[in-house]
Amino acid sequence: MKKIGMLLLCLLPVLAFCGCSNDRSTKYPVVNEYEGVSLAVDQENLSATKGVFLLKNDTDHDIAYLDAYHMEKKDSEGNWEEFVGTASATWSEETKTVAAGTEEELAINWKNLCGNIGKGEFRVVIEVDGYPIAAEFTRE
Fold this sequence. Notes:
Distance between the termini: 59 Å
Mean pLDDT: 82
Largest sheet: 5 strands, antiparallel
Radius of gyration: 19 Å
Number of helices: 2
């Protein structure tokens, strides 16, 4: 019994450091560097709980994206912070493609993951062929 107690005492500091983190800093300090690929918000279909985004492929080849997104909000110091729960939000497990010269409409409902986003500056980030692509928008 003493051995188990000692083992738990030794593991406690490790668990404290790799447990929950309060660091919500973006994991995407640089976005939109994939030439010919863009993500834009459809302002007419934007609310506090969902939005429609247009992924445009102006390249000469097909592009692929995982059906996942990150929702971020700009803090008072101008830094992007991730909403809790959207770090790996997925609509499905499949990878989708967008043909060269076309665009795909992405309907995103973030209500179940981060609720009503309220007012502020926001961005949605998706990964396309490994590159983070973002669309920024403001809610007033």
